[in-house]
Amino acid sequence: MSEKINANQDNDRQITLVDDQGNEELFEILFTFTSEDYGKSYVLLYPAAVSDDDDVEVQAFSYDADEDGDVTSSDLHEISDDDEWNMVQGVLNTFLSDDRLSGE
What family name appears in the similarity comment? Predict the structure, then answer.
């Protein structure tokens, strides 16, 4: 299991998150993007254990990468601003509706 995201390489596509009860869960990275309006980078994740038949709950976080582009779970930040959430949701909707981006 990897605890790092490398935003510059496609082969590091997983991160382990720990919930409030100390339970670890492995997540796959759906995609990352940067918003010039908010001056932040974002990562969208989904549980690695999801099968193709399951509905997927996507989680989004802003993040701070180090100078090598690496990110650990402690570098993820919850999105609390409604306008920021709406922007992230819009990017996700565009991704999901564009077959060229989502790989379908």
Answer: Belongs to the UPF0473 family.
